[in-house]
Amino acid sequence: DIPLNIVYEDDDILVINKPRDLVVHPGAGNPDGTVLNALLHYYPAIADVPRAGIVHRLDKDTTGLMVVAKTIPAQTRLVESLQLREITREYEAVAIGHMTAGGTVEEPISRHPTKRTHMAVHPMGKPAVTHYRIMEHFRIHTRLRLRLETGRTHQIRVHMAHITHPLVGDQVYGGRPRPPKGASEEFITALRKFDRQALHATMLRLYHPISGIEMEWHAPIPQDMV
């Protein structure tokens, strides 16, 4: 019985704000208790739609906005829109290090050659493009706004680690907590307790798959990232 935090709904689509610690698709180790299970529970008819209407994923511990198709025509059109890069997805993140300027990472991504659950930058990988801009500087961290042009698995996390600025809390790609010199005990404790990647899907913009109207949603940064 997983509550879906629904931000928007009509006959064709719904937009949810996914919490942390929630897997999108059932898989090894997560047979149930996923977004897909919740969708089938609340919307039995969505069983007829491929992948229960899920057209893009968020990692288990990434929070924020996801669009779901409730009908096959909506699903077909949304998948097309994603492929044509007509859907805009922006993320808030906190990266390790003092970054001096925004930019673009354009590096192909594939499965890691030895660690099967990890992804890596690899010349034979699929094209991947991440744009980022600086929102705020902290002592040894930088708050970023990122825009995805492609949607590879773990894309932002892999790209930021590749440019030596992994996301805070990202145990997989090197974002272990490193408190700045002279930090308060309170800050050090908070940083150590932050056990997920600091990544939140904050904005989603798309053309409605049936009406064609441009729509946009925003999800505020979750409390644990503030």
Automatic annotation (TrEMBL):
Q: Does the keyword Ribonucleoprotein apply?
A: no
Q: Give the Gene3D superfamilies listed for this entry.
A: Pseudouridine synthase
Q: Which key words are in the record?
A: Isomerase
The answer to whether the entry has keyword Transcription is no
User: Would you say which domain of life the source belongs to?
Assistant: Bacteria
What enzyme class is recorded for this protein?
isomerase
Q: Write down a Pfam family by its short name.
A: PseudoU_synth_2
As recorded in UniProt, its EC number(s) are 5.4.99.-
User: Which residues act catalytically here?
Assistant: 59
Catalytic activity field: uridine(1911/1915/1917) in 23S rRNA = pseudouridine(1911/1915/1917) in 23S rRNA; a uridine in RNA = a pseudouridine in RNA
- GO MF annotations for this entry? 23S rRNA pseudouridine(1911/1915/1917) synthase activity; RNA binding
Give every Pseudouridine synthase RsuA/RluA-like domain span.
12-162
Q: What does this protein do?
A: Responsible for synthesis of pseudouridine from uracil.
Q: Cross-referenced NCBIfam families, in alphabetical order?
A: PRK11180.1, rluA_subfam
> What protein name is recorded for this chain?
Pseudouridine synthase
Q: Which organism was this protein described from?
A: Klebsiella michiganensis
